[in-house]
Design a protein that fits this description.
heterodimer, A: alpha/beta, Helicase, Ruva Protein, domain 3, 2 domains, five-stranded parallel sheet, 14 helices, about 45% helix, about 15% strand, B: about 290 residues, alpha+beta, Immunoglobulin-like, five-stranded antiparallel sheet, three-stranded mixed sheet, 8 helices, 11 strands, about 40% helix, rod-shaped
């Protein structure tokens, strides 16, 4: 019973946190909801969107609201893995010094690690990040460093493709969600963004987000949520059908225009991807005041959890911006429960 | 004596036949009787001329109507040296009431030698034409004697009928296939989804609640064309606005189904099944258009 009360309290804090973010970054409610889900499911998040739509502001606001030690690095073409671990400089006495880099600076209290423009970094950097994301540890100076609380937020620009490195499939798979950030559509929000001086100074805007101080309890909370929220055999069957449909969509009646469906996909969702999906769905059920997962929970997080895990055949890969959303929509429209 | 012989030979030389322009002329005609309306009458003319004399083809009668009852159907002229063989084929269109004597008109064949012209008469030819019918209508002999012509025999149309039947069959098959492509039959089936669902529900009891819920889910999915969930009812109502009137029942159904299938500790009572059947009946009424 105590756990139930605790979960209820936590939910109120989570929803309050969500409301606060929505007041800071306006017009991005669906993206904010997905980030909240990822945070409380302890999953890493990759944001993709056009320039200046608020990706960085959103992530900074979330990091500020969560509390915890925060580090940030900008992806550049000459960034090397060592730059994440240490940096060298000459001190006041002219002696060379080695100090911990962004990853090691806060040690095991590192909470939010924000990797800006991740696709500008080299694959070597991606490889280091892979281990940090998957195992929450890295090896440096002949020993392992653990980051039990690390939460990686990364973003990438959708427009520019020059001097960028496409994230490898393994790196993408370690992100729980890839969230597309689009410009707010409502005229009211656009008007606010243009004329309200509050949104002109990002630093002041972020400073206004209250630090909830909940960050270092998130692991415990997430574990509780995952244990308390139940899934029924019917839901297992539904999730299994969704998984199979990501590998063989044509067998579930999914049809896309001008595509030979059996040749559409090179790879479907991975087991890790499906476990992330269920974790996110359970977290959503918790936020929706339920103690059991419904198909609509899976449907709500399916696009953000799955789109970056489906790899199209090179013959149609050039149409992925169009085909992947259609495929996800088709799968959700064809798989029934019960 | 010698002088007498010379004179006798000279006289003999001068006593030869005088040269005629036509050395041979003959008109050959068939029998001059026994013709009826529509018969064809051939006429064969042979002319042999002296050397240097030629026939003027323009002087021959031309093909076509000669007079109101006589047609010249064919004119053929064959020449071999000075011999001309001319064939005419006349046709008679005269319906006499009694045997009547008629005459193929005569004409003159022109022969020419240089600028000189000589005529050769082809005489008229008389023949008799018989009537085709009785002159007296014999009413006494079994009533009507004059009968209409027999109707023409009909052409065999069996093949055409078979072809028509085959074409119609193919057309029907194509129309059925086209209907399938246009998705007409799912629509037809959709009009009976709740009829079939009600039939299945009829035999189910409280213990078969899972099956009963599945039946209604399948019916709603069929109607919607894709799986229908609680959070997509809005789209469903946009496509099927007539179901908006049972929104409360549908909400009950989806919430009940969610609790039954996805949460623990659901206790089923008999009233639930009855409510499910009521929902299905409401849907059936909407499906039939009576609500």
């Amino acid at each position: 019973m105590n756990t139930d009360i605790q979960l209820t309290d936590w939910r109120e804090q989570a929803l309050q946190f969500e409301r606060q973010i929505n007041q800071t970054v306006i017009g991005l409610q669906p993206a904010v909801r997905h980030i909240i889900l990822a945070v409380f499911a302890r999953g890493h998040v990759l944001l993709e969107g056009n320039v200046g739509v608020g990706k960085t502001t959103l992530l900074r606001a979330v990091a500020q609201g969560l509390g915890g030690d925060y580090q940030r690095i900008e992806g550049t073409i000459d960034l090397m893995p060592a730059d994440l671990i240490y940096y060298t400089y000459l001190n006041d006495q002219g002696r060379p010094c080695v100090d911990p880099g962004p990853l090691l600076k806060h040690g095991d209290t590192l909470a939010t690690f924000f990797f800006n423009e991740i696709n500008r970094a080299r694959p070597q950097v991606h490889a280091l990040l892979l281990r940090a994301m998957a195992e929450r540890s890295i090896n440096a100076f002949n020993r392992d460093y653990h980051f039990p609380h690390i939460q990686v937020f990364a973003d990438r620009n959708r427009v520019e493709k020059e001097e960028t490195f496409e994230l490898p499939a393994a790196a993408k798979d370690r992100f729980m969600m890839e969230i597309n950030i689009d410009m707010p559509r409502g005229d009211t929000e656009l008007d606010e963004l243009m004329f309200n001086p509050r949104f002109h100074d990002t630093d002041r805007l972020i400073t206004g987000v209250a630090n909830s101080g909940i960050y270092y309890r998130l692991n415990e909370l997430a574990q509780t949520v995952q244990q308390r929220i139940q899934t029924s055999p019917k839901l297992h069957a539904y999730a299994l059908s969704l998984w199979k449909a990501t590998h063989q969509p044509h067998q579930y009646g999914v049809q896309l225009t001008d595509v030979e469906m059996p040749q559409l996909l090179m790879a479907g969702a991975s087991p890790r991807g499906m476990s992330y999906l269920i974790r996110a769905a359970k977290t959503r059920a918790w936020l929706e005041h339920r103690d059991h997962v419904l198909p609509e929970d899976l449907q709500a997080v399916f696009p953000v959890c799955m789109t970056h895990r489906l790899f199209l055949n090179p013959m149609v890969a050039y149409r992925k911006e169009q085909l992947l959303p259609e495929l996800i929509e088709g799968i959700l429209n064809q798989v029934a429960a019960p | 004596m010698r002088i007498l012989l010379i004179m006798a030979l000279s006289l003999l030389g001068c006593s030869g036949q005088i040269d005629e322009p036509v050395s041979y002329f003959k008109v050959e005609t068939p029998r001059p009787f026994g013709y009826v309306n529509g018969d064809e009458i051939p006429q064969h003319i042979v002319i042999e001329t002296r050397s240097g004399i030629s026939l003027q083809p323009g002087s021959l009668p031309v093909k076509g109507q000669i007079n109101r009852w006589l047609n010249l159907n064919q004119v053929t002229v064959k020449q071999s040296g000075q011999r001309y063989e001319i064939d005419f084929l006349y046709q008679v269109f005269y319906a006499p009431l009694e045997v009547k004597s008629l005459t193929l008109p005569g004409f003159t064949v022109q022969l020419s030698q240089g600028e000189k012209s000589i005529g050769q008469n082809v005489p008229a030819w008389t023949f008799t034409l018989s009537p085709l019918r009785e002159l007296m209508v014999r009413q006494s002999e079994q009533g009507e004697y004059m009968r209409p012509d027999s109707p023409p025999p009909l052409l065999t149309d069996t093949q055409a009928l078979y072809g028509l039947a085959a074409s119609l069959s193919v057309a029907v098959l194509i129309a059925v296939y086209l209907g399938y492509l246009y998705g007409c039959y799912p629509n037809m089936l959709r009009r009976t989804v709740f009829k079939r669902a009600l039939r299945k529900l009829a035999g189910l009891s409280k213990a078969d609640m899972e099956q009963a819920l599945t039946v209604v889910h399948h019916a709603l999915n069929s109607l919607n064309g894709q799986p229908l969930f609680l959070n997509r009812l809005g789209e469903f109502y946009r496509r099927n606005p007539q179901y908006l009137q049972i929104n409360a029942q549908l909400l009950w159904f989806f919430n009940y189904s969610n609790r039954y299938f996805f949460s623990d500790g659901m206790i089923v009572v008999a009233q639930d099944l009855q409510q499910l059947k009521n929902l299905c009946e409401q849907c059936r009424k909407i499906e039939r258009g009576s609500r």
